[in-house]
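User: I'll paste a sequence; please echo it back and then give the predicted structure.

Assistant: Echoing your sequence first, then the prediction.
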Amino acid sequence: MTTAMAADRLPASILHSPLLAQVGVPHGFTTRLGGVSGGVFESFNFGNPSDLPPADRDPPANIHQNWARLLGHLHAAGREVVQVHQVHGDAVHVVHLGGPSHIATDGHNTKADAIVCDDPARVVGIRVADCCPVLLSTADGSLVAAVHAGWRGVIADVLTRTVEAMVHVGAIRPREIVAAIGPCIGPDTFEVGAEVAEQFRVKFGSGTSLVAPHSGGQHTIDLKAALREQLLGAGVLGSMVDTRPECTVSAIGPDGRPLFFSHRRDRGLSGRMVGVIGPVRS
């Protein structure tokens, strides 16, 4: 692994992975704190609900300034930010050194839920508000990926597809990948109906511990554990996977308010955090 990233110098509003810090890649999982946005988007917001009228959205200038702050904290100022139009599927977008990025703006509409990148002039980011951000890197930090995985993404195997893409692009083995599972909705708060629970039982086996009965005929799902199981199934070593413990629905920040944006808790009227990562510079 390369020289360790100075994760201890990150502000408390940005969470990191100890394993990825050892690799030395610039990376982070944001919280709600530390930005310039206001209202329901206070304050470190990186996106808007898709069905929100334009007049009610967080202005692009705020989101741009939040990105600038984040990149500055990660010592990645000036890098191009690559994002995609997330659709809860299994598509993986690959961004090569010097190639087009297809950023999700008015001019581009690349639909995917994972991005693989080997260009140290860029960072890749995915937006979340209860779904799980997963960040991956090769052990030398030359190839990275960011994955957006909710329950649909788990069923679709988006994380497995991302590992396969990294293996292909980097000509590596899965055991050479380091992975970090970020904050997301936790098993105590992720209630689902019988239909979703059954899809997990079909996917992971009828006796899976990922699904637990809950009151009123509901069930709970352990999304982080499901993603870890999929990483191990794809050949990533357990010792090379770490998991942030925070639940985006229930975690409370130092100001006594929610630490994260949460689509479920806030009934859809919520900002977005990001999981972001970039290759190391040689």
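The radius of gyration is 18 Å. The helical segments are 18-23, 60-73, 151-156, 158-170, 194-204, 223-233.
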